Structures are given as structure tokens and as C-alpha cells.
Amino acid sequence: MKPYRRLASFLVASMLLLSMLLSACSKDSGELTKVRLGEVARTVFYAPQYVALANDYFKEEGLQVELQTTAGGDKTMTALLSNVIDIALVGAETSIYVYQQGSDDVVMNVAQLTQTDGTFLMSREKLDDFSWDDLKGSVFLGQRKGGMPQMAGEFTLKKHGIDPKKDLELIQNVDFANIASAFASGTGQFVQLFEPQASIFEQEGKGYVVASFGVESGKLPYTVYMAKSSYIIKNKDTVQQFTNAIYKAQQWVEQHSAEETAALIMPYFKDADPAIVASAVKRYKEQGSYASDPTLDEQEWNHLLEVLDQAGELKQKVELHSIVDHSFAEQAKADVK
């Protein structure tokens, strides 16, 4: 080989090596990639997400996550579609709605956080021997039409022989963020609430948990991280790093007690009683609400379609691969130990 060719080969090899070194060191360089994350609610139901933030798992992956609460699935999806946020934590059904509308920029699900409904049925009165028939003829403060809490709730009611439209006085005109305060002020005999609000109301004597919609409605890809296809294409490394951080947190929650998890996430629930937060985490852990890894299961996906279809919200069957990208979750499971 001529000298100038050897020199050229050496320079190319050196440049490639330098590029690899710079890439490997990027996480330690202090230059973090900003990710705007919108969560549909602030709830203990999302404990692994707060663990990822508290343990600096995102920073370990080279990310600076800016979290904002965009209350309600419709508001969260609007924020994602209008580029107010980069990644949304919201019910998987919202991505199906966008797909059904024929969007050119498909919203893709990349990592699952929770795998059951997160709401509990609360009664205003203490019922020592609760029966689902107790709901017949009652005033039920429900959730937003087309949202997963309401659809999972209706799925459960029908399973127990209750027609939500005929057997209840169903109230659905209260905004998601105001449902708890509406119940506290006297609206409804029964209500669906997430934790820690359910446990707070129990402590205050404002209501009593009588059943879990998470247990009753079965496994679902209930809350999922999603992003627009255009964002994913341009930011594949960022999405992978984000998914890695979530998987680390999921493993941490799996391996630690409810009390340890509650202590770690308390900065995100500053006004809550630590004992209440621990009780809420324990409820979710015991009923298997937290997904142990980010992969969306096909059986759970088909059950989601069943729930949507029964609620009259499914225009067409949406195959898993159409709006779910498993590659990031699978890579995370391979790389994160």
C-alpha cells in the first residue's frame, strides 16, 4: 500500500474511533438532551416514572426530562400533536383514536408503564358487605366518555350485569381534574378514583374503597409512553435512552418494597401523608398494576380492543404492529441489566 493510502486509512480509522469515543462519553459530558414529557395525571399509579426521575435514570441515559401534568387524555394528546410535548404518558386508546382519524403522522406506542386500570370504586357510605347490585339505582360520578377509566369501568359494570346507561344515574359532565373535589362536595354516591386520592378520602372519612376496577377489568396496556412517528424517526437514540430509563425504574420498583418506593417518590406528592402514599403503592403492587417491563403484550392489546369495542369507540380493528413499536422495549431489555 502506498504511503498516502496508509495515511488516509489511518485518518479514517482515527476519525471513526474519535466518533465512537465522543458518543460513548456523551452521557458523561454534562450535555443532556431535553425531552418534554407530558403525563395525563399526577398519581401514585405512575410510581415507576417518578422513580426514574428521583434516581436520575434519565440523566444516566443523557436526558433532561421536563415533566408537566396535562390533565386528561384529550388534553395530553392535543399537547403531543401540537408539539407542546415530545413524549406523552397517556392511555393507549388515545393513539387508536388518532389512528382511526387517518393521521399522516401516526402516534406510536413505545413503552408500557401500567397494565391494569388504576381506579378504585368508592362508596360515600361504608358498606361492610358490598355487592355490585348496590350500584343499581345509585348516582355514579363517572369519568370522561371515551377515556380508559370510564370504558374499563363500564366493562366491569356490564360484567356484573349492570347497564351503566339504564341502571345508574351516570354523571359525566365533570372535568377529569375536578372529579375528586366534586365527590368531596357531595356529588354522587359512588365514584372512580385513582390513588392516592382514594386513600386520602378513606383517611378523611369522605369515602370508602369497595372494589378495584384494575382487578375486575383485567390486564390492559393502560398507560403508555407514545410519540409521533416524525419525532421517533428524528430522535431514535433519545427514545431508546428514555425507554432504558423507564425499564431501570420498573426493575427497581419490582425489587423494592412499597415503603421504599413511597419514600423515594414523596417529592412528587409533597402534600400527601407518606403512609397514604405507601398504602397506595402497596395496592398497586399487590394487584400487578405496574408493568415489569416496557413491552406491550399482544393479549393485553386485544383485550384493550375488546373494551373499546364494547364501549362503541372502536371503528376498526387496529393491529398491534400498526401503532406499537416494540424495538425500543426489546433493546432496553437486552441492554439494561
UniProtKB/TrEMBL annotation:
Keyword Signal appears in the UniProt entry: yes
Protein name: NitT/TauT family transport system substrate-binding protein
Location, primary (coarse class): periplasm
Entry keyword set: Signal
GO CC terms: periplasmic space
A Pfam family per the record: NMT1_2
Family: Belongs to the bacterial solute-binding protein SsuA/TauA family.
Cellular localisation: Periplasm
Claim: Signal is one of the keywords in the record: yes
Endpoints of the signal sequence: 1-24
